[in-house]
Design a protein that fits this description.
It is built from 7 helices and 11 strands. By secondary structure, it is of the alpha+beta class. The protein folds into 2 domains: about 5-150, Jelly Rolls; about 150-225, Arc Repressor Mutant, subunit A (Orthogonal Bundle), CATH 1.10.10.10. The strands form 3 sheets. Strands 1-8-3-6 form a 4-stranded antiparallel beta sheet. A 4-stranded antiparallel beta sheet has the order 2-7-4-5. A 3-stranded antiparallel beta sheet has the order 9-11-10.
Length: about 230
């Protein structure tokens, strides 16, 4: 695949906003990057695999997951077209992926070599600033997610999810774009534990739910997430 096909997308990404399409075409050569396709549910990076590139998602969605020895999956976060991964690891002394990265959909990734990134940081101040912003943003996202998971009960995690979706969807009926299994992974709990808590919340008259939605019956629960 040729970089030329994705130049318009790259100029819309913060890292490359300071470059024209013509300038980008001159920057990229066969030695400093690769463009690869990944089928849905492919393992892009395994836990403890060395990070050698900064990657731009040119198409699709990926998820960052932690899989324990019992096979339980915790989905920390997801990234979509235009997002960048690997920047917060590439220049670490221990530059290995702490978690598994999987393609949630069919994906296309641009893998940029370390020396190429270093050269751009040295020669282009706007790129350097955008790269540092990217590193900080990703660290903030992952740190907050870990904090939320380790410090909150299952009920608080569910309510936190419902609160976000309530304001995003502007409705007490929260439509789910994921299965209950995927929701459990996103919240960092086991599927049976999620089902038990949802049942308890339904019995308490707080929610009702089916396979495709959760309806908030008592808006006062939105105040419980921070208890």
């Amino acid at each position: 695949m040729k970089i030329k096909k994705y130049l318009q997308l790259l100029t819309c990404i913060d890292l490359f906003k300071s470059f024209t399409k013509e300038a980008l075409l001159k920057l990229f050569c066969e030695e400093n990057h690769q463009i690869k396709k990944y089928e849905k549910n492919s393992m892009i990076y395994l836990q403890n695999e060395v990070c050698n590139t900064v990657d731009v998602i040119l198409r699709g969605e990926i998820v960052i997951q932690k899989i324990d020895t019992n096979g339980n999956i915790l989905t920390l976060t997801s990234f979509q077209t235009g997002d960048i991964i690997g920047g917060n690891l590439l220049f670490c002394h221990n530059n290995v992926y702490p978690m598994t990265i999987t393609s949630k959909t069919d994906c296309i990734l641009l893998h940029m070599e370390k020396d190429f990134i270093l050269e751009l940081c040295q020669k282009n101040k706007a790129f350097l600033i955008a790269f540092l912003h990217c590193i900080c943003d990703k660290t903030f996202i992952l740190t907050n997610k870990l904090k939320a998971i380790t410090m909150k009960t299952i009920k608080q995690r569910i309510i936190e999810f419902l609160t976000y979706e309530y304001y995003y969807q502007q409705s007490t009926k929260i439509l789910l774009n994921m299965s209950k299994k995927e929701l459990a992974e996103r919240l960092g709990v086991q599927r049976p534990s999620l089902s038990r808590e949802l049942n308890k919340m339904r019995e308490d008259g707080l929610i009702t739910y089916d396979a495709k939605s959760i309806t908030i019956k008592n808006l006062n629960i939105l105040e419980l997430a921070n208890e």
